[in-house]
## 1
Amino acid sequence: MTDILLRTASLRFGYPQRNGLFRKSSLREVIKGVDIVVPRGSVLGLVGESGSGKTTLGRLLVRLLKPTAGGIQFDGVEIGGLDDAAMRPLRARIQMIFQDPQSSLNPRLRLGTTLTRPLGAYGRLKGRRDQRERAAALLHLVGLPAEFAYRYPNELSGGQRQRAGIARALALEPDFIVADEIVSGLDVSTQAHILLLLRELRARLGLTMVFISHDLSLVRVLCDDVAILNQGEVVEYGPVARVFSAPQHAYTRQLLAAIPLPDVEPGWLDDSPPLATSQQQGSAA
Ligand SMILES: Nc1ncnc2c1ncn2[C@@H]1O[C@H](COP(=O)(O)OP(=O)(O)O)[C@@H](O)[C@H]1O
Ligand SMILES: [Mg+2]
């Protein structure tokens, strides 16, 4: 056991691209030597403009992509070079939640089926009754009523769908989660409830998270540390309080100036209703 759950070392990644002239593919590098350290139980915010490489880095961390160079250590194990078979036992512990829950929620399946599918795939279901109970427990965990197991994704609001996406990611009881822009596109009040839920889950389940967002105000209320990504490089990295009060890099200052932080105080979430209320709203919204 180490107090660092995840770390990267000079992590690099390039997408293959075709060179029209010679028809030979080369790599277009979009992650250019990233070093991050995520202590167990902490939340790291990953911020940058569109195209800066946030999603690519997130996919690398959960090993949906394979690094072209450098390393990724998860719980003391170097996973950067592992093949699918070697990754499989670790997959259950590492989950990614996407902005668009559509990609993780099959529109043709009832929620209960989708939520318990990963459990089935890992042989962790003991029959129908167990499946029902597990679905209900997962829904409860994210503040949705048990009856939602019988609903289809299109019968949910945006916020409810995102809760369901979170529940699915939690099914296998992972210890590390990468959340990629999961509240973008939701209204501010729904965003607050989802952030509150994440914070609650983090405390209750001891989750370690990388929270990807282009919105610094969200990072401020949820994250311990923040890494600012610019064109595939981390240009600023440190505790949230330090980065917000004394940004070192011109790019960070530019981001801070560009993103209005009007009435969003660090204590913003603390003024939000407790989870019980958010559960009701979650089911009513
Ligand atoms: N599948 C892909 N194939 C080729 N290039 C990609 C692919 N996905 C992303 N890119 C490129 O990689 C860069 C980083 O993209 P991305 O990681 O999606 O950034 P962000 O999430 O910060 O918007 C962009 O220039 C984007 O065009
Ligand atoms: Mg992205």
## 2
Amino acid sequence: MNQDTIAAIATAPGRGGIGIIRLSGPESERVLREVFRPASAFPAASSWPSHRMIYGHLTNGDEILDEGMAVLMRAPRSYTREDVVEIQLHGSAFLLEEALELCLKKGARLAGPGEFTRRAFLNGRIDLSQAEAVMSLIQTETDRQRRAAVRQLEGGASAFVRDLSSRLNRLQAGIAACIDYPEEVSEEEGAAGLRPEIEALIRDLESAVDERGSRLLYDGLRVTLFGRPNGGKSSLLNRLTGEDRAIVTDIPGTTRDVIRGEMTLDGIRIHLEDTAGLRESDDLVERLGVDRSEKAIREADLRLLVLDASAPPSEEDLRLAARLSGEDAVVLSKRDLPPRLRPEDLRRRMTGSPEILTASVLEPNGLADLKAFLARKAKAETGLAVTLPRHLDAIRRARGHLRDALRTLETGPLDLCSVDLQSAQEALCEITGERAGEKLLDEVFSAFCVGK
Ligand SMILES: Nc1nc2c(ncn2[C@@H]2O[C@H](COP(=O)(O)OP(=O)(O)O)[C@@H](O)[C@H]2O)c(=O)[nH]1
Ligand SMILES: [Mg+2]
């Protein structure tokens, strides 16, 4: 248990209806008593009730600083398993700084980033993956991120690690038995039994690692709209994001720079990029814009070639279409106008087989097909056990050690295989933070905000 008492402002900086000061540690109650005066005395004057909101005043002894509510949560029934105090005040940044200053004067120390959660971890209330889930929840921006974080907070990753760990333990015990009682189980028999078990472990690790799903979850999907000038790209960006970001005119070459917008589909963030129309130009600014477009097109997860369906396709359009992969799509825009380019005509003249969609920004449901397409592309595996990059890295290393173990089974003595299994075990334990060193903890918690 920590001997000192930490304090921090737990709410976001800035102005809010309410702001919260939080304390944790053995001196929390004393500090509370010195800075907060309950409006009515407790039945037994000496005991401050636990887990009960108390109305009263924040005071520096001479003067009332604010009116608010305070709660004491006695150890171990608290977030950190220490005595925790939360004082709710009015949410002025100035007032909260003053209240915090007062608590520090009474002997509390300013908390570091994530120090409350770090104490919850050190005191065994949560494991490291759950501590990280708290941070993920604070940073959550979409429904799907929230679900992944809650799953992790409820122990999803922990259960996964526990299951694999106990299977590894059993294998280790089997090896030890072979080595200690060679007359009962020969090394060959032992090795033959191990192989399928290790292969099953590798399979389970692989199915837990969904790189694409994880990247979609945290980074979202990057989609670039490209094509000749005047195809309707900027209009699509504006309609999809619901904002008037890009300038739309009937003058070709209006968009010069890459313009970005965001939308959320099925809980996945989609980063849309509208690019300068691709064409030869004498205009320096437009040429630079085209260079940037080329870069955006190369780096995108998904490309949408926007072609004006009210005009026949040019050779240039067909050349651009040839750059699309099976993941990408052609969007035939302005389908509200008399068509001069139909999907089937285009299909006949195209080499690859990207999807062909039609759209209009003037029709009420003109973007439904495009949205359905994007939603399909944004679909990730759900129910992932492991999503955080740090965890994925640990799993990859564990998998590497298990592959080493399979190789060792072919050539070396069983106790060498045991060393590989041990290394796999250690990599997995980094996820839950068992035997985690200060360095790892500093790394994880430095990303937290102060006050959590
Ligand atoms: N009728 C019709 N006109 C459109 C549609 N989308 C864009 N336009 C018009 O086409 C012209 C070029 O649009 P813009 O979005 O600037 O194309 P960009 O150069 O590809 O970005 C503008 O005059 C738009 O109003 C559409 O769905 N239907
Ligand atoms: Mg444009």
## 3
Amino acid sequence: MAVRLAIVGPGRVGTAFGLAAVAAGVDLLGFVGRSPAAVQSALRLCGRGRALHLPDLTAAHVVVFAVGDGELPAVLAAALAAGAARPCALWLHTSGRFGLEVLATAAAAGLRIGGLHPVVPFADAEQGRAAMRGAPGVLLPGPGSEGLLRTLAAHCGLVPVVMHGGDRALYHAACALAANGLTALRAAVDAVFAAAGGLAPAAAAGLASSLMRNALQACDELGPVAALSGPVRRGDAGTVVAHVETLAANVPAALPVYRALMAAAVALAEQAGLGAEPAAALRARLAAPAAGGVPPQTGLPSPAALPPPAGGFPPPSSD
Ligand SMILES: NC(=O)c1ccc[n+]([C@@H]2O[C@H](COP(=O)([O-])OP(=O)(O)OC[C@H]3O[C@@H](n4cnc5c(N)ncnc54)[C@H](OP(=O)(O)O)[C@@H]3O)[C@@H](O)[C@H]2O)c1
């Protein structure tokens, strides 16, 4: 008998799970949603199942809870209150923020519990479904649930990674930095290239992609300390000041991003061998208000008085 699956939360992740399950031959019963339009849209995409209500979940062997993190505890409580617990069924969530503790009441009600966090940014359901193939899926197995979690991960094309304990909020903060932080950084990079001018948009996008991919590859191969390059690694305070001044004048929204990330780069540069004196000079430049009066917003200490950087203001480095 095919596994009967129900999904609570017809959003990006829930619908992507539905698409993967249907392709794998799982019997998708349907979706429980808050808005009928979202449920209908998920059903249309998946081509199977029907609109479900919480009591219908008793028919499912596996229930995937893919609602927002803020809603998850209340939705689980509502499902239990609706008498939706089928003994020995597996209830799992897709949240990065929560561990198994959020499912403790479900376990006490005789359900198997687990987590399957696809470590993938889901811009929408179809893009996310494609991106899951070959990406990691972090499993949180409860008693007796690891085999089924692995099967579900395989249906989605996810490579299973088991997480035992650990600080889930920190884990999720790392995921958000890696995915959403990189997206925000890319938007800032695009804005600064656009303000610089002289490049066709496609060419500028190509430069951004190439630099970011190569930097990431160097981090993978060498680790971030050895991978760091550029003016901060060289202790070139003059170039850093030139960057701060032109960003303050032309793209002020990107300046806090630049200041925060270059301050983090100074710490890496020190680990890579940059001396204490040039490191202090860089920190001072990054903490100083720009000539146009844009103050730092990084929480860095403000220097009392800043001598001009050694060597004046050389042209910016290309890396
Ligand atoms: N997005 C990602 O990149 C990503 C990656 C990995 C894991 N996750 C995790 O996956 C989960 C879902 O994220 P998502 O991005 O798919 O969110 P989403 O697109 O906002 O989808 C959440 C869905 O849950 C529905 N919902 C909210 N409250 C509900 C309730 N009481 N009953 C039934 N349905 C309800 C929402 O309905 P409405 O349409 O009415 O809002 C929406 O359709 C989260 O735990 C998230 O952390 C997300």
